[in-house]
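User: tokens in, sequence out, please.
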């Protein structure tokens, strides 16, 4: 059985089975797997999930202005931080969790101030909470950011347990490292969303490298670095 490969679908959106009733798809198209689709639809009958998905869909549409039946080019109108606040209000959440990288502490303070101003109680936890030495994980001195110095490990388990203990209703991730964010998602009891993903050289805009994989970041496709500039 072929596995799903929606990223490699050769059809234009208007021709795809996931977009239109008359649409088509390759053999591996998950939309054409009616047994799976029916099983998924039953999942959305669960009241809590149904309400969450309903409000997410409404929030998706309200992120655009100029919506009309014949307008095929609505205008994106809301930054993600606004949508997070609006979605939280739609879900009637009052207590939000905020986990962040210590390198984004200033941004975290701004986010906390913004959300508090919207009437939310914010429980925030920095990545270095607990001050656990990296050596306890088996990290060698030469594998540290600054060899020869004492470094605390990022501690997503502690971040999650602090928020779980506070009984936050919705957790916001701000710039956790690759892998550390995965651990946090695993241990968090509350649903999570990402405000920003860690990407140091791009100022935390990971898509910058994706958009330029065939130009300025083409060296990433090679076995070794290419230092030539255009």
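Assistant: Sequence out:
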């Amino acid at each position: 059985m072929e596995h799903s490969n929606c990223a490699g679908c050769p059809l234009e959106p208007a021709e795809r089975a996931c977009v239109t009733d008359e649409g088509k798809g390759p053999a591996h198209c998950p939309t054409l797997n009616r047994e799976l689709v029916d099983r998924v639809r039953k999942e959305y009958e669960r009241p809590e999930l149904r309400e969450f998905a309903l409000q997410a869909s409404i929030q998706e549409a309200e992120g655009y202005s100029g919506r009309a039946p014949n307008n095929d080019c609505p205008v994106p109108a809301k930054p993600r931080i606004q949508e997070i606040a609006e979605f939280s209000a739609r879900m009637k959440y009052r207590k939000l969790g905020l986990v962040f990288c210590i390198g984004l502490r200033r941004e975290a303070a701004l986010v906390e101030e913004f959300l508090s101003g919207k009437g939310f109680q914010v429980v925030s936890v920095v990545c270095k909470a607990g001050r656990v030495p990296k050596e306890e994980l088996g990290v060698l001195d030469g594998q540290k950011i600054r060899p020869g110095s004492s470094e605390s490990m990022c501690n997503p388990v502690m971040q999650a347990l602090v928020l779980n203990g506070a009984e936050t209703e919705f957790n916001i991730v701000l710039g956790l490292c690759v892998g550390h964010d995965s651990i946090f998602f695993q241990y968090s009891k509350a649903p999570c969303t990402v405000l920003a993903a860690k990407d140091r050289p791009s100022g935390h805009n990971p898509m910058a490298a994706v958009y330029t994989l065939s130009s300025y970041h083409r060296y990433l496709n090679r076995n070794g670095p290419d230092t030539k500039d255009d």
